[in-house]
Amino acid sequence: MQAALEEVDAWAHKHGLIFNPAKTQVMLCNRGRKYSPKEPELWLGGQKLSYSDNIKYLGVQINKRLIWSHHVKDRYKKCTHPAIQVAAHLMSVGIGTLGK
User: Fold this and answer.
1) How far apart are CA 100 and CA 97, in angstroms?
2) For 64, which of 28, 47, 57, 90 is 20 to 30 Å away at the CA?
3) How far apart are the first and last CA of the chain?
4) Cα angle 37, 43, 48; round to 5
5) DSSP classification of residue 25
6) Is 62 in contact with 68 (CB distance < 8 Å)?
7) DSSP string, 31-92
8) Euclidean distance between CA atoms 97 and 90, whole angstroms
């Protein structure tokens, strides 16, 4: 994996791009439950990369088992909370009712 990182880094420099190692995380994906692969030390731009069990990629949170249930729960929570507040406000001013 380190060799692949070095190739990607060389390509980026050749094309005027710079990766930020501080914002780069490594996640080893494994759908199996019993096997945990060894985490090799990986370096980018002279800095050691950190490992994570969860990563947010293009706005979607996934974990190392490639499951995004945490993302769905988080989105659900963020969507329902404002709806509950609006319903409570409407009831407090006498405009709406819940279940009637």
Assistant:
1) 6
2) 47
3) 60
4) 85
5) E
6) yes
7) --SS--------EETTEEPEE-SEEEETTEEEETTS--HHHHHHHHHHHHHHHHHHHHHHHH
8) 8
pLDDT in tens, 36-85: 668 889 999 889 999 988 888 888 888 887 776 776 787 777 777 777 77
Encode burial over 25-43: b for 16+ CB neighbours within 10 A, e otherwise: ebbeeeeeeeeeeeeeebe
- Token pair, residue 34, equals 């019993």
Assess whether pLDDT exceeds 90 at residue 11: yes
Residue whose token pair is 């995380």? 25
Q: Map tokens 């094309």 to a residue.
A: 15
